[in-house]
Amino acid sequence: MPAVYDELRRLARHYLRQERAGQSLQATALVNEAYLRLKKDKKQPWHDRTHFLAIAATSMRQILVERARARNAAKRWGSQIRITLDEAIAAGTGKSFDLLALDEALTRLAKIDPEQARIIELRFFAGLSIEDCADAMGISPATVKRGWNMARAWLKREIEKDRRGGC
Amino acid sequence: MDAERWQRLKEVFHGALEQDPASRAAYLDEACAGDAALRAEVDALIANHEEEDDFLEKPAYQVAAGLLEGDPGDELLGRRLGPYSVTRKIGEGGMGVVYLAEDTRLGRQVAIKALAPRHTSDPQHRERLRREARIAATLSHPAIATVYALEEHAGNLYIICEYVRGRTLLEELSAGRLPPLLLLDTGIEVARALAAAHEQGIIHRDLKPENVMRTPEGAIKILDFGLARFQTPRHKDAPLAGRLTGAGTYLGTPAYSSPEQLLGLEVDFHTDIFSFGIMMYEMASGTHPFVAADSVTTLARILEAEPAGLASLSPMIPPGLEPIVRRCLQKSPGQRYSTTRELVADLEQLRKDTAPAPESRPQALAPLPDAAYAARLKPLWWWQFHQVWVGLMYYLMLLPMWKVKEWTPGGWGALFFFLSVAAVGVAANLRIHLWFTSVYYPLELGEQIRRVSIWIRCADVLFVAMLLTGALAILGAHEVYATLLIAVAIGSLGAFLLIEPTTARAALDRSR
Known about the structure:
The complex is a heterodimer of chains A (about 170) and B (about 500).
Chain A lengths: L5 H11 L4 H20 L8 H29 L21 H14 L1 H12 L4 H8 L3 H23 L4
Chain B lengths: L2 H16 L2 H11 L4 H15 L9 H4 L1 H4 L11 E2 L2 E9 L3 E8 L4 E8 L7 H15 L9 E7 L2 E7 L4 E2 H5 L6 H20 L12 E3 L5 E3 L36 H4 L7 H16 L9 H10 L16 H8 L11 H15 L14 H9 L3 H27 L2 H31 L4 H30 L4 H30 L4
Helix pairs in contact in B: 1-2, 1-3, 8-10, 8-13, 10-12, 15-16, 15-17, 15-18, 16-17, 17-18
């Protein structure tokens, strides 16, 4: 059993080394929650490292999406109903971030190209490098890079389309 | 988008990227021959790809940092909340911001906890919080901070409770473990409060050193009793108590949650007993029973590992404490104490056995926190004296070393002196630094010694080597001098290897 959560531990330590202490505390909290959820859900034993990493990345994605939803719900009850523009993607510059839009687009991508969706999940939600991602998925780094390029471009487009109200 | 079309899109996209920009258009013309829709898609994708931005480049936990932070707010500063006049901000807890305020009707100070907006958005959740606050308010015990009221203003919820002056156990623990009698007395006071609350059916759920305070008079007060649900809900019934960081940092504290809490299972009063066990272990030994290099391992240890035996950590700990703490820290709630009164009884018995003297109030801790810490940490004066003395002696030794350099021809002499200066510089200055730290920053002394010791040792060894080398170099011409140098070398070795470690250990033993 110890070998199984080595990856999360590695992530926790990796996050700890981040420059900004505030960020590292938050990221660590995220990894802890992911670990506990995985521990709790005994029905999902992982077969190997790849599977485990995939589950961990998905778990972190779920946690973030839940919080984004709760945040949005709170905002609607707030005294200011104005939708804050800083949460929408500024045209093409990707300065700010709408996590829920990404989540929806990513779900759509997973139906079309599961491999690319997995790459995005591992790289964006679990913060893996291209090499680590290739390692985890059992494919070549070149394949990861190609999939990453295309998925990024496609997702960006999808989110833009959603924001403008469909095409 | 069907599978075939997607495949084509992929091929064309990657193929286009492999071309250099100049020949891209031609490639696309050929590849998409006749399929205008495909061409449009690929063009759009390539355009997106070419944009220079960091979309998704930074990992989620950086980009979505705003989601992971709490919702701190300083809106109340200097304002009034009904009859309460807000004076200043005390801090930020798990529920939100905490303010110090004055109840203008009764003229007493209170603490106001502003709950984060996400708690107040759902009407059902609000009702639940109101019920919780009502239950928590029924608790009336000298060692439990009273909840006075729950106020609602402009859609936000505020908890008004007793303002407690003093130090938290967390601050006390940063100075090291507690002496045996204080340890037991504190444990008994906390346990009695827990027992009283448990008998009324109220569970704390978030017991940790940050939530236990000691007033200047020496009394114990437990904060936030029964208000754990007001924290950010993560699992049903089970907020993750405390923050987890790597060992050796000052930020954050290891988790004090019980296994059932972490796994989101049903919790009852047994969870408080587990948290109490962790606290007792820490107060007795100065270390957390499940400490580890990273947070995930700490969680894993809480869930699965047995902590090291208390007796092995310090001879000062009363031996009868080990079985009590062990029983509190059982992974399965059913194997812990079946009532909190039993725990209190065991602790009281242990206290009687440890010293027949009546309960003592720790008056010594009454003065300002800094003075109290300094007093408990003050190394024996002769260690300080030793550091300064050795430092000065080192500087003085530069004179004979210079003489050796004069008597030694050429480059070797210069090299010899250079190395000696280096050794003296490091060994003397670091010792002075430690002495300075012990006087002005006693809390950091342990840490500084840990960091600096290896360098002092290396410099000491280098210096002794230089002494012997110098002695050998001048042995022919200046026997007396050489003998002196060798004598100093031997004396220094004795001091560094025997005397210094002993004085350092004696100086640093905080549990006197």
